[in-house]
Amino acid sequence: MSPYSNLERIHSPADLRALDRRELAVVADELRAFLIESVSKTGGHLSSNLGTVELSIALHYVFNTPEDRIVWDVGHQTYGHKVLTGRREAMSGLRHWGGISGFPRRCESEYDTFGTAHSSTSISAALGMAAAARDRGEDRSAIAVIGDGAMSAGMAFEALNNGGDMEGINLLVILNDNEMSISPPVGALTKILARLMSGSTYNTARKVGEKVLGMAPPVAELARKVEEHVKGMITPGTLFEEFGFHYYGPIDGHDLDALVPTLQNIKKLKGPQFLHVITRKGHGYKLAEADPILYHGVSKFDSAAGIQGGKSAGKLTYTQVFGDWLCDMAATDKRIVGITPAMREGSGLVRFEQEYPDRYYDVGIAEQHALTFAAGMACEGYRPVVAIYSTFLQRAYDQLIHDIALQNLPVLLAIDRGGLVGADGATHHGAFDLSYLACVPNLVIMAPADENECRQMLYTAVCHDGPTAVRYPRGSGTGVEPDKTMTALPIGKGEIRRRGSKIAVLAFGSMVPVALEVGDALDATVANMRFIKPLDDALVAELAATHELIVTLEENAVVGGAGAEVSRCVDTLPSRPRVLRLGLPDRFIDHGDQAQLLASVGLDKAGILESIARIYSGNS
Ligand SMILES: Cc1ncc(C[n+]2csc(CCOP(=O)(O)OP(=O)(O)O)c2C)c(N)n1
Ligand SMILES: CC(=O)[C@@H](O)[C@H](O)COP(=O)(O)O
Ligand SMILES: [Mg+2]
């Protein structure tokens, strides 16, 4: 018999709702076991999903989904929700080419009411849905499920500020508090939540909460006010009350006997409601409970043995090259500080935090703040290095322009995950940074061809007295060992890597290795352009004067990226060869492995040769 016999009978939330409440615990056990087995085969976000098993069941059991809207913040905790909404079998293709996404997507299911992956959008989106329901006179709920990490972002508070003051909306915010972001959460809010969770408060609040919720309004309203008054004296629970929300909790988010009746009662209430649930990352899988950071995002692994091995003996990743460089640089330059918006592990800052705790700043999931905070430090003579993923830098665009570039402040953006990231897919590809950075005055933008060049560019950036960006891809490059010594590169100068004839391939960053293969195949000239800004106009002019075709290669949107800069330069020249711009197409790119994705957009050797051949055959 299948170990998932009960789960297999649930094809949609309607099947779940047909069950007796006492049967839900079995479903939860099977769902948890299924997720461990399934994610161990596909990879994905494990810890967070194990923490939301009961919450997913309780929400779909109590609310009339998809009529009632659930918006999952970040969406990395929605695997249980996917299974319960008809995607159990599709889980075998999770995050793989052609398979389902690791995040909610409106095009994937009617139960995925809002696409997420970048954090802290859920309250705004659910509030918008609640306002729409109110304005149309529709009686349905909008529920935002947001983690304690995601709650730290300004956007979440903007939405609370707006929602707590909105009349007649049917909005429930569920704070899924597991006392973890990817790494331990930071900031004053974390302390407030910890006080809310502390022993006596927890019990008292829970008992009072149950009592209140058992009553019908308006009695409940009166009791709530009494409760708030009492809690206000002993806990900071009224923070959310002050925003205009009715606060309930904290309750145990793994206890279906607490969750289900609480949600049933809250469902009857009108106005902005706030439920605080306590869960544990990795719940029910001892290895993940013990090390939720390691199991936050996993590759395939043996679920019995757990993730094996420490550091791989293979090539260094660009992230490691950056992390090592930052420590080395900090040792020689006291002005260096490292800043991360909640991505210590992913950005390679673990060692830096250990060695330089006083110069390390995790500012929470707060990209906008991270950049302006860096700007402030730069004003005081520091050399702030903001380690940030390309996709999350999108959040902080105005801060980059207005607070850093306009004031010409020496902030270094170490932009990781530039280009296609793989399994996280469209929400996480660093597809746009060269386009949105190239137009910013004062900014020097570099993209390394290999790991050593990455180290040298980071050093070059710190030597430059103005804003800089070094953009590198997820994973490793050619395997070049970085030199210990650091030498500043001449700003705005590329280099010719191969001399050929007729065709000149101008490659940026991660595309240099494949450009060299193409060069060998066609006897083409290959330039490693190094700088997107300032572009090496002299090199472009020289190559334009001596070749009949210029091919630009970049792992960035072809619209407005490095190739567009080359075209702009060629347009000013007296002799203008044809320019073929190759990069990411003008559409969002799904998930899959990086090599597969590059091939799918024609950025592997075969694809590039084909595009060039089309020029010569006149088919382009
Ligand atoms: C804007 C943005 N910045 C950073 C991230 C990377 N990120 C994904 S999950 C996560 C931690 C979220 O913590 P929490 O909301 O508490 O959820 P948990 O992982 O604890 O379930 C972070 C920082 C992101 N998805 N979006
Ligand atoms: C959900 C999220 O945003 C992160 O967990 C992200 O998936 C991490 O990506 P990396 O695996 O590239 O660090
Ligand atoms: Mg959390």
Automatic annotation (TrEMBL):
Signal peptide: none annotated. Mg(2+) binds at residues 148, 178. One of its GO terms (cellular component) is cytosol. Pfam families: DXP_synthase_N, Transket_pyr, Transketolase_C. GO terms for molecular function: 1-deoxy-D-xylulose-5-phosphate synthase activity; magnesium ion binding; thiamine pyrophosphate binding. It comes from the Bacteria. GO terms for biological process: isopentenyl diphosphate biosynthetic process, methylerythritol 4-phosphate pathway; terpenoid biosynthetic process; thiamine biosynthetic process. Its cofactor is Mg(2+); thiamine diphosphate. Gene3D superfamilies: 3.40.50.920, 3.40.50.970. Its EC number is 2.2.1.7. Keywords: Isoprene biosynthesis, Magnesium, Metal-binding, Thiamine biosynthesis, Thiamine pyrophosphate, Transferase. Thiamine diphosphate binds at residues 76, 117-119, 149-150, 178, 285, 367. It catalyses: D-glyceraldehyde 3-phosphate + pyruvate + H(+) = 1-deoxy-D-xylulose 5-phosphate + CO2. SMART domains: Transket_pyr (SM00861). Residues 316-480 form the Transketolase-like pyrimidine-binding domain. PANTHER family: 1-D-DEOXYXYLULOSE 5-PHOSPHATE SYNTHASE-RELATED, 1-DEOXY-D-XYLULOSE-5-PHOSPHATE SYNTHASE, CHLOROPLASTIC. Belongs to the transketolase family. DXPS subfamily. This is 1-deoxy-D-xylulose-5-phosphate synthase. It comes from Parazoarcus communis SWub3 = DSM 12120. The lineage of its organism: Bacteria, Pseudomonadati, Pseudomonadota, Betaproteobacteria, Rhodocyclales.
